[in-house]
Design brief:
The chain is about 5% helix and about 55% strand. The protein is mainly beta and about 625 residues long. It has a single domain, classed as Maltoporin, Chain A (Beta Barrel), CATH 2.40.170. It is globular, with a radius of gyration of 24 Å.
Length: about 625
C-alpha cells in the first residue's frame, strides 16, 4: 500500500505547534479564565475545569446537536488524543485509543455503570452502538486513572451521562427528531422528561436503520451493501424523598435502565460477502441511594449496577458463535469537606465479571477495591493539588496498589493555567485472553503502567483565543499483545507511548469561530522496536463555524479531519501500512422557531477513498437532512 502524506495535516500541525509555543508568552491575556464549567470524572467530585490537574474535555448536549452526531463515537473523534479505527461505517466493530492506549485500557462509564463487554479480548465497549440522541454530557479524562477507577483505566476514562428530568421545572418536556440520508439511512428519536410531586423522570426511544455500503477494501468491490439496524430505549426515575430533616440534608433514590438491540451485517472475507451478521443485545440497570449530611459536610452514595451484553454471530442465518458478558458492581462513594478548600473522596467497590462463549465454559473473576483522593486548594484556589491511592484485591492476581497526583496552577492576570498529573495503573488480562482455548494463555500476568503529563493553557485577547498543549508519556510493563506468528496472546517486556496534544479555540469575530486539535504521537514496543498498530504519528481536526447576523438562527460549519499513515500488524503483506487521509465535511442548522430547527450535512465532500483499518473501506460522499423539535 502506498504511504500517503498529506500537505494539509502538516500545515495544520505546524500551525498549532507555533500557537502552542506562543502560549508561553502571557503578555496578551487580560482576564482570568472562566471557572464556571464543572467536571466530575477528574476527581470524582464536582470541580471547576480550570482547577483540575488532569487533562479533561467536556462535551455537552448542545455541542452534540451542533455537530449533528449520530453516535457517541462521532462525538469523540474531535477530542485531542482520541483516535478510532474500525471495520467500515456505522454499526461496524470500532476500537478507540486515548493517547495511543487502545480500548482495552479505556474505562467507559454510562451513568456511572461499567458497561465493559468482558467476553471480548479487550473487555471494552463499542460506542458505535450508543446513539447520541439521549446523551446529556460526555467527559473524556486522559491519562492513568486506575487510582480512581480501577483496572483498565490506564489510557483514560470516558464518562457518559444521559438526560434527566431533574431540574426541568415542568411536568413534561423533552425533544425529538428524525433524519434521512444516503445509503437508505433513516433514524429518529423522542425523549420525554420532567418532574412533578418530588419525582423526576426521563424516558427515551431511538432507532436507526441503514442499508449501508460495501465495506470490502478499496479495489475489491463485492457489489453488496453491509447494513445496520439499532433500536434503543432508556428510562430513569428518581426522587428526593427527604429534605432538611435533622442532620439529613437530602435523601435521593434513583433507578435507571437501558436496552440496545443491534443487527450488523459484515463481510466474511476481503473479496466476497458470506451473508454474515452480528445480532447483539445490551441490557443495563442501576439503583442508587444518596444521602447528604451535616449541611454539605458529608455526601454518601451507595449503588448496585449490572450490565449484560450478548453477541450472536450468524452465517447464512445459522448461528456459529456467541459471546455472553455480565458485569455486576456494588459501590460506595463518600465525599467529606471538613474545611473550605479541602475535600476527601473515598470509597469501596466489589465487581464481578462473568463470561461464557461458544468455546469457553463459564468463567468469572472478582475484584474488591478501596480508594481515597485528597483535594487541596491553596492561594485562594489559584493552586489545586490532589493525591490519591487505591488498593485492589483481584481474585486471580492478588493485591495491587496504585497512586496518582495532580497539580493545577492559575495565573489569572496572565490568563495562564499550568497543569500536570502523574499516576500508576494496572490492567488484569481479560477472561478471553486467559481462558480462550486457542488464543488465550492462563499464564499471562497483569499489565502495569506509569505515566505523566504536563501542559499549559493560555488565553489571549480577552479569552477570544485559548490554546492548551500537553506533553504525555506512558510506559506499560508486561504489555499483552497478539502474536500473529503463534496465533496466541503473549506478553512483551514493555511498551511506551509519548507525544503532544494541542487544542485551540478562537472567536475570530461575532460571526466566525474556529476550533482545532492536533496530536503528535510515538508508540512502540520497547522489546522489538516495532510501531504499535493503528496509531498514526499525526492526526487532528479543524472546524470553522459561521453564524451570520443577517440570518438569525443559521449555524453553518465546515470540518476537516486528517491522519498520517500508521502501521497495521494484522496486515502481513510487504507494506503493512494504512495510508494517510484528509476528509472534509460541511453542515448547517437553521432554527425556524425557538422549538423547531432543520439541518443538513454533507460528509466526505471530495469522495475520498480511505480506511482506518486494513481491508475495510469507509463511507464515500454522503448527504443527510433532518429536523429537531423541543416540547
Amino acid at each position: 500500500m502506498r504511504q500517503t502524506h498529506t500537505p494539509f495535516p502538516r500545515r495544520l500541525g505546524a500551525g498549532l505547534l507555533v500557537l502552542s509555543a506562543a502560549a508561553a508568552t502571557p503578555a496578551f491575556a487580560d482576564e482570568a479564565q472562566d471557572l464556571g464549567k464543572m467536571v466530575i470524572s477528574a476527581d470524582r467530585t464536582a470541580t471547576p475545569v480550570a482547577q483540575t490537574g488532569s487533562t479533561v474535555t467536556v462535551i455537552t448536549a448542545e455541542d452534540i446537536a451542533k455537530k449533528q452526531a449520530v453516535t457517541a463515537l462521532d462525538v469523540l473523534r474531535e477530542v485531542p488524543g482520541v483516535s478510532s479505527y474500525g471495520n467500515g461505517g456505522i454499526g461496524k466493530t470500532t476500537s478507540l485509543s486515548i493517547r495511543g492506549m487502545g480500548d482495552a485500557y479505556i474505562k467507559i462509564l454510562i451513568d456511572g455503570m461499567d458497561v465493559s463487554d468482558v467476553s471480548g479480548a479487550a473487555s471494552s465497549y463499542d460506542l458505535t452502538h450508543l446513539l447520541a440522541d439521549d446523551i446529556e454530557r460526555i467527559e473524556v479524562l486522559r491519562g492513568n486513572q486506575s487510582t480512581l477507577y480501577g483496572s483498565s483505566a490506564i489510557g483514560g476514562v470516558i464518562s457518559i451521562t444521559t438526560k434527566s428530568g431533574k431540574g426541568s421545572g415542568k411536568a413534561i418536556g423533552g425533544d425529538g427528531g428524525f433524519e434521512w440520508g444516503s445509503y437508505g439511512t433513516a433514524r429518529g428519536h423522542v425523549n420525554a422528561r420532567g418532574e412533578s410531586g418530588g419525582v423526576y423522570y426521563s424516558a427515551g426511544l431511538s432507532g436507526l436503520t441503514t442499508q449501508g455500503f460495501d465495506v470490502s477494501p478499496i479495489g475489491a468491490d463485492t457489489g453488496e451493501s453491509d447494513g445496520y439496524k439499532n433500536r434503543s430505549a432508556n428510562l430513569r426515575v428518581g426522587s428526593d424523598l427527604i429534605t432538611d430533616l435533622g442532620i439529613l440534608d437530602r435523601l435521593n433514590v434513583e433507578a435507571l435502565g437501558s436496552t440496545i438491540e443491534a443487527h450488523t451485517e459484515y463481510d466474511g472475507s476481503a473479496t466476497a460477502d458470506n451473508d454474515r451478521d452480528i445480532r447483539s443485545v445490551q441490557r443495563s440497570g442501576k439503583v442508587s441511594v444518596s444521602a447528604d449530611l451535616f449541611e454539605g459536610l458529608l455526601a454518601n452514595t451507595v449503588s448496585a449496577a449490572q450490565s449484560r451484553i450478548r453477541r450472536d454471530y450468524y452465517t447464512n442465518d445459522k448461528r456459529n458463535n456467541y459471546f455472553d458478558s455480565e458485569v455486576t458492581k456494588y459501590e460506595y462513594t463518600g465525599t467529606l469537606k471538613p474545611l473550605d478548600h479541602h475535600a476527601v473522596v473515598f470509597g469501596a467497590d466489589h465487581e464481578r465479571q462473568h463470561m461464557r462463549t461458544y468455546s469457553v465454559s463459564a468463567k468469572e473473576i472478582t475484584n474488591d477495591g478501596y480508594f481515597a483522593n485528597y483535594q487541596l486548594g491553596l492561594l485562594d484556589d489559584a493552586l489545586t493539588l490532589t493525591a490519591g491511592a487505591r488498593q485492589d484485591d483481584h481474585s486471580a492476581f492478588g493485591d495491587t496498589t496504585t497512586h496518582r497526583g495532580t497539580a493545577a496552577y492559575r495565573i489569572p492576570d496572565w490568563g495562564t493555567r499550568l497543569h500536570a498529573s502523574y499516576g500508576t495503573g494496572f490492567r488484569a488480562p481479560s477472561l478471553y485472553q486467559l481462558y480462550e482455548p486457542t488464543y488465550g494463555d492462563p499464564g499471562l500476568k497483569a499489565e502495569e503502567s506509569r505515566g505523566y503529563d504536563v501542559g499549559i493553557e493560555q488565553s489571549f485577547l480577552d479569552d477570544r483565543l485559548v490554546i492548551d498543549t500537553t506533553f504525555f508519556n506512558t510506559r506499560l510493563n508486561n504489555a499483552i499483545t497478539y502474536d500473529f506468528a503463534t496465533s496466541k496472546y503473549a506478553q512483551t517486556a514493555s511498551a511506551r507511548v509519548y507525544g503532544q496534544e494541542t487544542s485551540a479555540t478562537a472567536q475570530v469575530s461575532d460571526e466566525v469561530s474556529v476550533s482545532a486539535g492536533h496530536t503528535w504521537m510515538q508508540a512502540r514496543d520497547n522489546t522489538t522496536g516495532q510501531v504499535l498498530a493503528t496509531r498514526p504519528h499525526h492526526q487532528g481536526n479543524l472546524r470553522v463555524a459561521y453564524a451570520p447576523d443577517e440570518v438569525k438562527g443559521l449555524d453553518a460549519w465546515v470540518k476537516a479531519r486528517f491522519a498520517t499513515w500508521s502501521y497495521d500488524s494484522a496486515n502481513t503483506s510487504s507494506k503493512p501500512f494504512i495510508g494517510g487521509y484528509t476528509v472534509f465535511d460541511l453542515g448547517a442548522t437553521y432554527a425556524i422557531t425557538d422549538w423547531a430547527s432543520v439541518y443538513g450535512r454533507l460528509e466526505n465532500i471530495a469522495d475520498k477513498d480511505y480506511h482506518t483499518k486494513s481491508w475495510y473501506a469507509e463511507s464515500g460522499r454522503a448527504g443527510y437532512v433532518g429536523a429537531r423539535m423541543k416540547f
